[in-house]
């Protein structure tokens, strides 16, 4: 129990269950929005079209151009479609890329957002938006970015490929890992993160056995909600900084990058805050939080080395430079040499502490 804390309260309405997609129309009505533009990636366009049909007169159409890291040129095209349609809301159906597009539209137009997440990336509960323009990714936090309503429908995650199921779960666990030691954490967030660790530990191996297992999908999506809430209400540190460096400057895929770095960043900070990270060690076993996560990653077939996302050993020097360009809070103080050593381990792919 912490001596003192501030809990800001949650502002996003959450609808969770199986078949909840059918409630999207009611949720739009609840927001007082008669018309909405449905958003998706090209890959999920058919699902978005089906949703638009189900929404009937409430849907003004589908914009299926969402892309990873929210390119500003895509946002501009989507805003043109949104403004022409006279809609007052967006319905974002998909993973973090689609949610990001919805947030970018909302920030610039004041649109209400109903988000229907289909991965575990966890953008839906947050006030964070990362965008790319001219090859540079910038991130900002603003209350106007946070979605009004999130509908979690377990049925929509049944089609999530096993590879993305695993890396997306590791991406979610990374939010909880940094929430456990965040200076602005509270008991509510800590409880959610503890529960999420247990749910992922049980749920992910069950999904590898049977990707369409409804109970295991429900467990994993519930855990994703907990981790997204953690990301949305506390500050992140070294792990998210490093993931941002690789995604933003080396164009590595988002979920895999988080998955690879997680055991190493956890082990690095565990030296300074072993008690804060004890819930991870307890959930994943292996005698330590970093070691336990590495063992889990190996068990569920998650990538373990930066080589697997195309990073060369020579890239590690530039990544270390970028990681220490600006100072930010982290439970364990570090110099460039410490980061370079951490990255070497993440590139070698060896078990932390070995
Ligand atoms: P994604 O949204 O790019 O999805 C990956 C691919 O999987 C896409 O083609 C998508 O259409 C497909 N897909 C998604 N759900 C599916 C399903 N259930 N079945 C079949 N295919 C499905 O990937 P992501 O990892 O969810 O999101 C990554 C993006 O989200 C990055 O741009 C990242 O920066 C952003 N993000 C932002 C925040 C935030 O708070 N701002 C948090 C997490 C992630």
From TrEMBL:
<dbReference type="GO" id="GO:0004022">
    <property type="term" value="F:alcohol dehydrogenase (NAD+) activity"/>
</dbReference>
<comment type="similarity">
    <text>Belongs to the iron-containing alcohol dehydrogenase family.</text>
</comment>
<dbReference type="Pfam" id="PF25137">
    <property type="entry name" value="ADH_Fe_C"/>
</dbReference>
<protein>
    <submittedName>
        <fullName>Maleylacetate reductase</fullName>
    </submittedName>
</protein>
<dbReference type="GO" id="GO:0046872">
    <property type="term" value="F:metal ion binding"/>
</dbReference>
<keyword id="KW-0560">Oxidoreductase</keyword>
<keyword id="KW-0520">NAD</keyword>
<dbReference type="InterPro" id="IPR001670">
    <property type="entry name" value="ADH_Fe/GldA"/>
</dbReference>
<dbReference type="InterPro" id="IPR056798">
    <property type="entry name" value="ADH_Fe_C"/>
</dbReference>
<dbReference type="GO" id="GO:0018506">
    <property type="term" value="F:maleylacetate reductase activity"/>
</dbReference>
<dbReference type="InterPro" id="IPR034786">
    <property type="entry name" value="MAR"/>
</dbReference>
<dbReference type="Pfam" id="PF00465">
    <property type="entry name" value="Fe-ADH"/>
</dbReference>
<feature type="domain" description="Fe-containing alcohol dehydrogenase-like C-terminal">
    <location>
        <begin position="165"/>
        <end position="347"/>
    </location>
</feature>
<dbReference type="InterPro" id="IPR039697">
    <property type="entry name" value="Alcohol_dehydrogenase_Fe"/>
</dbReference>
<feature type="domain" description="Alcohol dehydrogenase iron-type/glycerol dehydrogenase GldA">
    <location>
        <begin position="12"/>
        <end position="153"/>
    </location>
</feature>
């Amino acid at each position: 129990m912490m001596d003192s804390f501030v809990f800001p309260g949650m502002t996003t309405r959450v609808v969770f269950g199986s078949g909840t997609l059918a409630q999207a129309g009611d949720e739009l009505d609840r927001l007082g929005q008669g018309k909405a533009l449905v958003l998706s990636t090209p890959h999920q366009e058919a699902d978005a079209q089906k949703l638009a049909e189900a929404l009937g007169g409430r849907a003004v159409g589908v914009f299926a151009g969402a892309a990873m890291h929210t390119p500003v040129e895509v946002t501009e095209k989507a805003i043109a479609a949104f403004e022409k349609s006279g809609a007052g809301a967006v319905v974002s159906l998909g993973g973090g890329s689609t949610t990001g597009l919805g947030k970018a539209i909302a920030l610039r137009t004041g649109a209400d957002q109903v988000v229907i997440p289909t991965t575990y990336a966890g953008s839906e509960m947050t006030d964070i938006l990362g965008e790319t323009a001219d090859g540079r990714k910038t991130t900002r936090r603003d209350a106007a970015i946070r979605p009004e309503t999130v509908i979690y429908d377990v049925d929509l995650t049944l089609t999530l490929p096993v590879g993305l199921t695993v890396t997306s779960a590791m991406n979610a666990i990374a939010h909880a890992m940094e929430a456990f030691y965040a200076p602005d954490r509270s008991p509510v967030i800590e409880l959610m993160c503890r529960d999420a660790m247990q749910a992922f530990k049980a749920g992910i191996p069950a999904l590898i056995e049977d990707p369409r297992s409804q109970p295991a999908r429900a467990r994993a999506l519930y855990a994703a909600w907990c981790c997204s809430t953690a990301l949305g209400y506390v500050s992140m540190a070294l792990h998210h900084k490093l993931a941002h460096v690789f995604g933003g400057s080396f164009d590595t895929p988002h979920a895999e990058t988080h998955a690879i770095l997680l055991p190493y960043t956890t082990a690095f900070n565990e030296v300074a805050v072993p008690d804060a990270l004890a819930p991870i060690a307890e959930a994943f076993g292996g005698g330590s939080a970093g070691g336990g996560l590495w063992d889990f990653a190996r068990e569920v077939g998650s990538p373990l080395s930066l080589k697997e996302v195309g990073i060369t050993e020579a890239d590690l020097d530039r990544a270390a430079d970028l990681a220490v360009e600006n100072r930010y809070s982290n439970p364990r103080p570090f110099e460039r040499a410490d980061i370079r050593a951490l990255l070497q381990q993440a590139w070698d792919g060896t078990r932390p502490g070995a």
